[in-house]
Amino acid sequence: MRELRLKHDLTQEQMAILLRTDLKWYQRVEWRRKDVRASTIERLAAIFGISALEFLGGELPKTKVTARPPSAPHKPKTRPKRKTSR
């Protein structure tokens, strides 16, 4: 995140303003001391004109998943009903 910010000649204070938050919060995020929501990642990516996936540095899988998830190999065990004495 810091690299992108510097590449775009933005200060931490300017980023905080763009995100409509305070400087301390932004610093904690940039220093990886604070987790952020997906919506915040989308806003950060939009500031830099990239997708959220590009912002996170990930790549989409090159192959499609075609197989269905395997079915359960067996039914869950059930406990026998208890007889109650009255």
Radius of gyration: 24 Å
In this structure, how is the largest beta sheet organized? Answer: none
| Low-confidence segments | none
Count the DSSP helices.
5
Structural class: mainly alpha
Q: Can you write the helix and strand succession as a string?
A: HHHHH
**N-to-C CA distance:** 69 Å
The quaternary state of the protein chains shown equals single chain
Strand segment tally? 0
Helical percent range? Answer: 40-55%
* β-sheet strand percentage: under 5%
What does this structure look like?
- This protein is mainly α and 86 residues long.
- It has a domain at 2-56: lambda repressor-like DNA-binding domains (434 Repressor (Amino-terminal Domain)).
- 43% of the residues lie in helices and 0% in strands.
- The chain has helices at residues 2-7, 12-18, 23-30, 38-48, 52-56.
- α2 packs across α3 (23-30).
- The protein is elongated, with a radius of gyration of 24 Å.
- The relative contact order is 0.10.
- The mean pLDDT is 80.
Please describe the topology of this protein.
Blueprint lengths: L1 H6 L4 H7 L4 H8 L7 H11 L3 H5 L30
Helix pairs in contact: 2-3
Task: Give me some keywords for this one.
43% helix; elongated; mainly alpha; 86 residues
Q: In short, what is this structure?
A:
By secondary structure, the chain is mainly α. It has helices at residues 2-7, 12-18, 23-30, 38-48, 52-56.
